[in-house]
From TrEMBL:
Protein name: Glycerate kinase
GO BP annotations, alphabetical order: organic acid phosphorylation
Coiled-coil zones: none
Species name: Cryobacterium frigoriphilum
Entry-linked NCBIfam families: glycerate kinase
Alphabetical list of PANTHER family matching this protein: GLYCERATE KINASE (PTHR21599:SF0)
Domain of life of the source: Bacteria
Keyword annotations: Kinase, Transferase
Similarity comment: family membership: Belongs to the glycerate kinase type-1 family.
Pfam families from the UniProt entry: Gly_kinase (PF02595)
Length: 369
């Protein structure tokens, strides 16, 4: 049996297992069959939860910078942003929305009033530190506030029809918006790490697609769409820009600040050096919780599979549930199928991930090099 170079680069299984845990389980399963292979773990992220952990694991000298922010429901949240070393003493700040204004921070969903103020406060903390560049991971949002909360923390001033300041989460009340007080983007720029290409408005926009995931019923989706549309009319950014609808419109708000949009998985992968690792591999294994039609829109599995194709390596997929074509993969394993159902797979995901990797390893042709 020939020894193989294997790169394991999965995303997290959202809310079930971190990318680090998933990568470890895949490695364990693979090694139980092929213990002589050279296996390299590269846990990935696409701008959602786990992005900070991926950078922290991969970048020597990365440092957690604690910060207390206002959570999406107004309660304080102990969070952190990540300082990456760079030329001079300033470095790059990585700020994650999921840990400051994310859905998992809510005890109960608040589709109309949750906000991104805390995310903006964490960005401001990184600016106060003097970072030269920002990477802004915006997956895992709890709100549909168009990024107004974050802009407010960065110096924007929103008022209602009576001239009173609009409270965080009060997008429906906005009448005027003054962006002249916004803090400047750092000299090296601010890059939005985004895993979707949705516009701000319309049937594939922030309210229609993502509002229900945050607890909005059909009437509330209509109200959110109207509020976001009114907000868009106050900002000189095209709401049809791909990614503007990401994170409840936070992508749109950050574009208004002066940040630029980037495909999350590709940006993270470039920073982590995944392409270089894959270039020398025979086998690449990736994965995520649900592999569906959106997975080709900048998410980790499609990005990693593309790198594998360029390198001439075989790409394999491990996913909790597979709902889309897997033609670009040499093989795939679904935890739902292995466990006999979604509930069983979720009860012990690492067990089934390990088994999936074991099955992929056992299926390797003897002459693969």
């Amino acid at each position: 049996m020939k020894s193989l170079q294997v790169v394991i680069a999965p995303d997290s299984f959202k809310g079930i297992a971190s990318a680090i845990e998933v990568a470890g389980a895949i490695a364990a399963g693979w090694a139980s069959v092929r213990d002589s292979d050279d296996v390299r773990l590269m846990p990935m992220a696409d701008g959602g939860e786990g992005t900070l952990e991926a950078f922290e694991l991969a970048v020597p000298g990365a440092r957690r910078m604690p910060v207390t922010v206002t959570g999406p429901d107004g309660r304080p949240v102990a969070a952190y942003w990540l300082l990456l070393p760079g030329p001079g003493s300033s470095g790059t700040g990585v700020v994650e929305l999921a840990g400051t204004s994310g859905l998992t921070l809510l005890d109960a969903l608040r589709p109309l009033t949750a906000h991104t103020l805390g995310f903006g406060q964490a960005i401001a903390a990184a600016l106060d530190h003097g970072v030269d560049r920002l990477l802004l991971a915006i997956g895992g949002s709890s709100s549909t506030d168009g990024g107004l909360g974050a802009l407010t923390a960065l110096g924007a001033r929103a008022t209602d029809a009576a001239g009173r300041p609009v409270a965080p989460g009060g997008l429906s009340a906005i009448a005027t918006l003054d962006l002249t007080g916004l803090r400047p983007v750092p000299a090296g720029g601010a890059q939005i790490l985004c895993d979707v290409t949705s516009p701000l408005l319309g049937p594939s926009g922030a309210a229609a697609v993502f509002g229900p995931q945050k607890g909005a019923n059909s009437e509330q989706v209509v109200a959110l769409e109207a509020a976001v549309a009114r907000f868009a009319g106050l900002v000189a950014v095209d709401p049809a820009t791909p990614g503007a609808g990401a994170a409840g419109g936070t992508g749109f708000g950050l574009l208004a600040w002066g940040a630029t949009m980037a495909a999350g998985a590709a940006a993270v992968g470039t920073a982590l050096g995944v392409a270089g690792a894959v270039a020398g591999a025979s086998v690449v294994i990736t994965g995520e919780g649900r592999f569906d039609a959106q997975s080709d829109a900048g998410k980790v599995p499609s990005y990693v599979a593309g790198l594998a194709a360029e390198a001439g390596a075989r790409a394999y997929l491990v996913a909790g549930l597979i709902e889309a074509d897997i033609g670009r993969f040499a093989g795939a394993e679904s935890l739902t199928e292995l466990a006999g159902g979604g509930a069983a797979a979720m009860r012990d995901p690492l067990r089934w991930i390990t088994l999936a990797a074991r099955r992929l390893a056992a299926a390797q042709p003897a002459d693969l090099s």
